[in-house]
Amino acid sequence: MRLLQERAARYYARGARFAKWRAVLRISTDGCPSELSVRENAWGLARYARSVQEQGLVPIVEPEILMDGVHDIETTAAVQEWVLRSVYEALGVNGVFLEGSLLKPSMTLPGMACATPPSPEQAADFTLRTLERTVPAAVPAILFLSGGLSEEEASVYLNAINQSAAAAPWHLGFSYGRALQQSCIKHWAGSDVAAGQQALLARARANGQAACGLYEPGSEPSDGTPLHVANYSY
Fold first, then answer.
1. Catalytic residue among 20, 40, 54, 62, which?
2. 140 in helix, strand or coil?
3. 199 — alpha (psi -120 to 50), left (phi > 0) or beta?
4. Is 64 among the residues known to form the active site?
5. Are 186 and 223 in contact, with CB atoms under 8 Å apart?
């Protein structure tokens, strides 16, 4: 971790204030995730968080449950509760200052190959239940990843979560990649800056409204392209 601390200090001096560490887990019918993988991912996230926090950076903790698989939403909820509980136990053991950290989790959703996709309301209920059971109120914000959801799905699910979360102790926002950029990249196409900007602004408005529970589904343009890629990696 000494190298990470040195790099964090160097980036802080250059103006960085946040760091992110992504730990990926998969649900499968052959026993994944294993107890060892959950424990080691949690410990790695905690050591990273403590290391960068000591250098002045805000650690974004990202335990991602991939959307690949045929499992139902109940299975995802059970695994995600286990993962998040393990992560926050490890963060506590390592003395991470929770008020100076952020969580970037998956929403609680079934595998993409599940025969019964959830309604936005069901996704919101399971996601909030999972977070309420595992994430301390000291954490100031939870910023969801999109994880292969389409642009519109990511906005609609986030909107449903915030409509159901009036008493939540955290800010519930977004930290999307593909679900914020896809239309922008398509309309920009390497040359049309104005079209790319308009597409990006549309999705920014949609997700900004969704973070307040005020998004009207379909009110902002999206190219509608499915964004899930099996076995996706950066």
1. 62
2. coil
3. alpha
4. no
5. yes
SS3 state at 20: strand
104 φ/ψ angles, rounded to the nearest 5 degrees: -120, 85
* pLDDT class of 18 with cuts at 50, 70, 90: very high
Domains of the chain: 2-210 (3.20.20.70)
Strand runs (DSSP E) across 88-186, as ranges?
102-103, 141-144, 171-174
Give pTM, 2 decimals. 0.92
Q: Is-catalytic flag, 104?
A: yes
- 204, containing H or E segment: helix 193-210
Calculate mean pLDDT across residues 18-26. 96
Kindly give, in sequence order, each residue whose CB lies less than 8 Å from that of residue 106, ignoring residues fewer than 6 positions away. 64, 65, 66, 67, 80, 144, 145, 147
Active-site residue, from 104, 152, 153, 220? 104
Report the largest interatomic distance among the alpha carbons of the chain, rounded to a whole angstrom. 50
Structural tokens at position 22 = 């992504």
